Amino acid sequence: MIPRYSRKEMAQIWEPMNKFKIWLDIEIYAAQAMEKYKIIPKGVAAKVRKKSKINIKRIDDIEKKTKHDVIAFLTSIAETVGSEAKYLHQGMTSSDVLDTCFNLQLKQSGKILIEDIDRLLKTLKIKSKKYKNTITIGRSHGIHAEPITFGLKIATYYAEFKRNKKRLEQAIDEISTCSISGAVGTFAHLGPNVEKFVAKKLKLKPELISTQIIPRDRHAYFFNVLALIASSAERLATEVRHLQRTEVLEAEEFFSSGQKGSSAMPHKRNPVLSENITGLARMVRSYSIPSMENIVLWHERDISHSSVERNIGPDATVTLDFLLTRLNNVIANLIVHPKNMENNLNKFKGLIFSQGVMLKLTQKGVKRENAYKVVQKNAMKTWDQNEDFYENLKRDLLIKENLSPKELKQLFDMNYHKRYINYILRRVLK
Questions:
Q1: Which of 141, 263, 299, 404 is catalytic?
Q2: What structural domains and CATH numbers belong to the chain?
Q3: Of 74-78, 214-218, 238-242, 251-255, which gets the smallest average pLDDT?
Q4: 141 an active-site residue?
Q5: Of these residues, 68, 189, 219, 262, which one is catalytic?
Q6: Phi/psi class of residue 43: alpha, beta or left (left: φ > 0; alpha: ψ in -120 to 50)?
Q7: What is the model's pTM?
Q8: Per-residue pLDDT tens for 289-323?
Q9: What does DSSP assign to residue 335?
């Protein structure tokens, strides 16, 4: 986690104190269950809860000697709890604590990410409705294609993030499991009821079958969903970057009073937030690969996954939270230039209506190949000689033979391309 790209709400989930509090909860809930099923004496859990103190420095000092984090934690707790501590961790293995805790941290992180997406969805919906009739040019291959509206453009991102929310909800459900099953997952020394009890207390589901660890395909799914969300965020950020180019300037990031764009060129207003989102998205995507490699472990368990998850768990969630928050700010404060959109739309003197002309000719009985040829011929004149497309078509013999002046003029009506905007938005924004 880099402080520059971290929000406190998410970062604190991965702080040592939260981790050790979860560890302590797991041990106490397990003790409560063992009391219930007469594995250990009554009253142990209550005494541990009352007497235990989490001392991070002491845990770290013990770990330097033991070279084992869970043993260091249990030893530290025992120093404040006393004799009752001997009943903790009965029949359990370290991974019961580590994996259950990690999954709970991912679930906690996922909840914040859902809130991030909800805020972004709200912003996208507002912008889509606001600009639903604002005509702009649609581009394919970066080249002018046909008219759309800016609201429709925004709505595509709304739909994508709705899908992302659903995926993340599924991923959170996938990761919300608990394993308290012992050294190789057989429940040999504590029984399945302990796991059921702990899972219920933590609002998790018992893992159906584990070895010593929770299967890592669950985690790979979670991190790959985060990667998908990051890619969607980058797609929107990249759109803003393109629209802010000087030659386009249809939309741009808000530029605050006192902000500086360049150390050398005072005139610069750069899309730095969107560029930052692009870079952070690349990082989140990169974490999906090691998460998949973590699926393949030796036999019932090795620890090759552990060092990976200590990195990607906090880094992926904290980074995605930050970039989604930043993206929402960019879109909420986006400066839109409808006049520039109009100017760009008209830049190539009507070429964007070529498809309508071609289709109308075919409806009049002209072979499609011939219709395409005559429309393209006049379009190329517009490209090469900067002539008006409509005027070129008016003079063309084949056009005059098949289309009246009125029919040709109607094919250049911008409103034609807005006919189904409301229908699409109702379908998307419902």
A1: 141
A2: 3-255+267-342 (1.20.200.10), 351-411 (1.10.40.30)
A3: 251-255
A4: yes
A5: 262
A6: left
A7: 0.94
A8: 999 999 999 998 899 899 999 999 999 999 999 99
A9: E
